């Protein structure tokens, strides 16, 4: 005779990738077709991306501190653009409301196009300029791929690397600012 062993049903599985969703972000999250937690995780504040977004101020601060006053005036437009871009990006990653996301998306495109054209015009070697821009585009595309197409938490690191590379190449190639004099 075979005895039937009665077991309890297994406990409900919790999603190890669950990300807390603030109530104000529910409208934005509902508008996205897929509800994978990583796909919607860009709608949640990210301290890592706030920190790397604030690095955009470094070339501007270095230009202000290390450039003589008459020469620094020709960089006024660039300094304002960098501070504006940094403020918009920090707001986007600290408080991702629809307005902040749209503002950052628009300003980031404008800033990147401005950075690429300035780099191509100023850098003595056009091949290096194209390579540096392509490397930045690669990490941005990787962050998008790992967030939207194949959800994985590494997208934050790819996007942080994108921020850091843009700051590094803008500082070194375009403005030639000394970080460590």
Please, could you describe this protein's structure?
This protein has 181 residues and is mostly helical. Helices cover 64% and strands 0% of the residues. The chain contains 8 helices and no strands. It has helices spanning 26-30, 47-54, 57-66, 69-72, 76-94, 98-122, 126-149, 155-175. It is globular. The N and C termini lie far apart (86 Å).
Which terms summarize this structure?
mainly alpha; 181 residues
Helices and strands in order:
Layout: H1 26-30, H2 47-54, H3 57-66, H4 69-72, H5 76-94, H6 98-122, H7 126-149, H8 155-175
Fraction of residues in helix: 55-70%
Tally the helices: what do you get?
8
* Unreliable residue stretches: 14-33
Strand fraction equals under 5%
Structural class: mainly alpha
Radius of gyration: 22 Å
Please write the string of helix (H) and strand (E) elements: HHHHHHHH
The shape, in one word, is globular
Let me know the largest β-sheet: none
- Distance between the ends: 86 Å
Report the average pLDDT across residues. Answer: 79
Counting DSSP E segments of at least 2 residues, the number of strands comes to 0
Care to give the gist of this entry?
This protein has 181 residues and is mostly helical. It has helices spanning 26-30, 47-54, 57-66, 69-72, 76-94, 98-122, 126-149, 155-175. 24% of the residues are buried.
